[in-house]
């Protein structure tokens, strides 16, 4: 029973963390709307959440290591920055300075992600309240 509750909360924890990471990416896009040659980025939330929960989704990068030609070399491995793979957004109307941020798209995505983050928090709050009610009875 406890494992099932932990698995349920693990899902919400990962979903909220990915929503927060996407919010930061979208905010960065908005902040760089006037930066020449800035490329708007986003993540595929559904595929990234499936991957984080271990249900397939985006393919993982293979572990790669550097060839050591001397005993004094430091071994290193390639790794990704966080659980989400950032994708570049294809602009519908390219700008002359090479910037791909479209403010209308970014604002809509930012508002949608904010709404979904709040909804996830409310669902999680409801789950916690129902568990507390069951425990107290």
TrEMBL record:
Ribonucleoprotein listed as a keyword: no
InterPro entries for this protein: Flag_bb_rod_N, Flagellar_basal_body_rod_CS, FlgB
Pfam family, one: Flg_bb_rod
Subcellular location, principal: other
GO cellular component, one term: bacterial-type flagellum basal body, rod
PANTHER family membership: FLAGELLAR BASAL BODY ROD PROTEIN FLGB (PTHR30435:SF12), FLAGELLAR PROTEIN (PTHR30435)
GO biological process, alphabetically ordered: bacterial-type flagellum-dependent swarming motility
The species this protein was found in: Castellaniella ginsengisoli
Record's subunit section: The basal body constitutes a major portion of the flagellar organelle and consists of a number of rings mounted on a central rod.
Name of the protein this chain belongs to: Flagellar basal body rod protein FlgB
NCBIfam families: FlgB (TIGR01396)
Residue span, Flagellar basal body rod protein N-terminal domain: 13-39
Gene: flgB
Protein's job: Structural component of flagellum, the bacterial motility apparatus. Part of the rod structure of flagellar basal body.
Keywords: Bacterial flagellum, Cell projection, Cilium, Flagellum
């Amino acid at each position: 029973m406890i494992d099932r509750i932990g698995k349920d909360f693990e899902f919400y924890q990962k979903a909220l963390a990915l929503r927060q990471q996407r919010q930061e990416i979208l905010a960065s896009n908005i902040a760089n709307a006037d930066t020449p040659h800035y490329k708007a980025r986003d993540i595929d939330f559904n595929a990234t959440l499936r991957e984080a929960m271990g249900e397939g989704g985006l393919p993982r990068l293979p572990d790669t290591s550097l060839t050591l030609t001397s005993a004094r070399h430091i071994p290193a491995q390639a790794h990704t920055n966080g659980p989400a793979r950032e994708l570049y957004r294809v602009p519908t109307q390219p700008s002359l300075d090479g910037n791909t941020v479209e403010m209308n798209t970014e604002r809509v995505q930012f508002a949608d992600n904010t709404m979904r983050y709040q909804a996830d928090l409310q669902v999680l709050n409801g789950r916690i309240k129902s568990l507390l009610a069951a425990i107290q009875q």
